[in-house]
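Weekly puzzle thread! Below is a chain. First person to post its structure in token form gets bragging rights.
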Amino acid sequence: MLENIISQNELTFMIGLAVSIITGFVIGVERESRGKDAGISTHILVISGSMTFSFISMVFAPDDATRIAANIVTGIGFLGAGLILKEGTNVRNLTTAASIWFAGAIGMAIGFGYYAIAIIASIVSIAVPRIPHFDKLTSDTPNNKE
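Winning reply:
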């Protein structure tokens, strides 16, 4: 009976959308916890949009699915570039822009059915911004003054 209401493609799409929402939410929480501009909504939308484009491309143009994928990379690159701010000699939001670009890759993995790759990449996306920066490790702190 369910097959008459929801096709296999639609069921697969709904599963992909659920995974997209979960991964986008988790990554977005990490970014918002650090006070970054692109947070939960942005990451959910980028991942879900990339997943949708990839899924539709794979279903309707399986012989040429890479054409849409290539345009996703370019389009999200422009989106991320809009986040980068230059203030004097300082550049801000590079990691946030990279996070958006990486979120697009996660969405594409989900759209093409590579859920494990998407989940592993999501973990990387959460862990990498938490790696201490070299300049903070070598800076003078009260316990590190010579």
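Puzzle host: Confirmed. Bonus trivia for everyone else. Helices lie at 2-5, 8-33, 40-60, 65-81, 94-111, 115-127, 134-138.
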